[in-house]
Amino acid sequence: QSIVLEVDGQKIPQSLSIARFVAKQFNLAGKDNLEQAKTDAVIDTIAETAEKLGPLIFEEDESKKQIEMKRFITDDLPKQLKDLDTLQSSYGQGAPYFVGNSLTWADLSFYDVSQCLLDIDQNVLEKYPKLKRNREEVAKQPKVAAYLRNRPETSF
């Protein structure tokens, strides 16, 4: 079953389209067209990581899951994290955020996906201090911090 957001009687499918729409509604998409394009570039990179990780999380064959997860962590993930680190360095203007000097949905998305990665390997971000700093900054946002304190414990 696919996720759908209904706005004024219009249905919007696809999780990234919905997230992008909501981000724009709440000023989390970037301050101008260029920042929005940069945010989209970060989101696309995060989505590539999530697309590779998702099937591994749901793999039912434990032996295959362990082999593929190890391959993902050692082969695929370092490239993805390096790409994200490069984007953060380029677009973050010295701030801890991925784009500009304020929170975007790219930061929230990375927090979410990186939590899954940290649940698999708690040292996965050790070589990426800027990405760790980004997570710390996101977790300090008052509404995010309140949510993290009070959310139910789930697998995702």
Describe the structure.
The chain is built from six helices and two strands. It is mainly alpha-helical. It has a single domain, classed as Glutathione S-transferase Yfyf (Class Pi), Chain A, domain 2 (Up-down Bundle). Strands 1-2 form a two-stranded antiparallel sheet. Strand 1 and strand 2 form a beta hairpin. Helix 2 runs antiparallel to helix 3.
List the SSEs and their pairings.
Blueprint: E1 4-7, E2 10-13, H1 15-25, H2 33-57, H3 62-91, H4 105-120, H5 129-140, H6 142-150
Antiparallel strand pairs: 1-2
Helix pairs in contact: 2-3, 2-4, 4-5
Low-pLDDT segments, ≥5 res: none
Mean pLDDT: 95
Order of the strands making up the biggest sheet? 1-2
Report the structural category.
mainly alpha
Structural domain count: 1
User: Which H/E pattern describes the elements?
Assistant: EEHHHHHH
Q: Radius of gyration in whole Å, from Cα?
A: 16 Å
The span between the termini is 18 Å
CATH-derived topology: Glutathione S-transferase Yfyf (Class Pi), Chain A, domain 2
The biggest beta sheet is recorded as: 2 strands, antiparallel
Strand segment tally: 2
Q: What is the architecture at the second tier of CATH?
A: Up-down Bundle
Helix content: 55-70%
**CA-based shape:** globular
- Kindly estimate the percentage of residues that lie in beta strands according to DSSP: 5-15%
Keywords: Transferase
GO molecular function, one term: glutathione transferase activity
Protein name: glutathione transferase
Organism: Didymodactylos carnosus
